[in-house]
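User: Structure please.
Assistant: Input sequence and predicted structure:
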Amino acid sequence: MSDTAYEIVGDPSASGPFVFTCEHASRLLPEWQPEPDDLPVLEDHWGWDIGAADLTRALIQLTGSCGVLSRFSRLVCDPNRDPGEASFVVDSVEGHTFSFNRGVDARERDRRRKRYFDPYHAAIDRTLQARVSPSTPVRLCSIHSFAPVYLGRARPMEVGVLFDAHDEIAWHLGGALEEEGFETALNAPYSGYDGLIYGAARHGRAHDIVYLELEVRQDLIATPTKARGIAERIARALTSYESLEEPPS
């Protein structure tokens, strides 16, 4: 099922252990025609998370789970940011001002929230409501990708596990990813404790389930074939995350 704002992949009534989300799955501009100067930045990591959609689809298939993917560029509005943040709609990056974001005011920000952001998150809520039950535990995993080089500095990690709760489960998953041969980092290249896992935290807390975000380096998943190979290794690591119980408080 799909909408301008989102696509649901897999069957929410399936018994797979995860609901995956991909906030930056697309570089589409549903209402706008970009100018030629916009295209290089739009197609780069500023416009979407390169490879993340292919990785998410493969993980859904490999784990028999389901997921919700965005169908609009993060430059329309960012579904992984609180709408009150300035970065919810950005008008320029690296000195380039986007033609489709010139002069965006509070009214336009609110319109984009209602047209894209709200339906995307409502779809996640519906999907989780269909999946969460005492007899079939489910875990939420948000999939993102990051640039190998940022602001001139190389990022050596291959996979980052981002969290702001469920620390021991996140640490365990980090170890399982290392056993799969990944150079793994916890709360890097960004930290969940800095409020940078908005989507996972919002829905994990609302539905009282374990949640985290995975960041995968873009060069590892830049083609569908690469993404499938990485997904196979991550899916094996996720089997331990699936069954690990939350420690008593």
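The mean pLDDT is 94.
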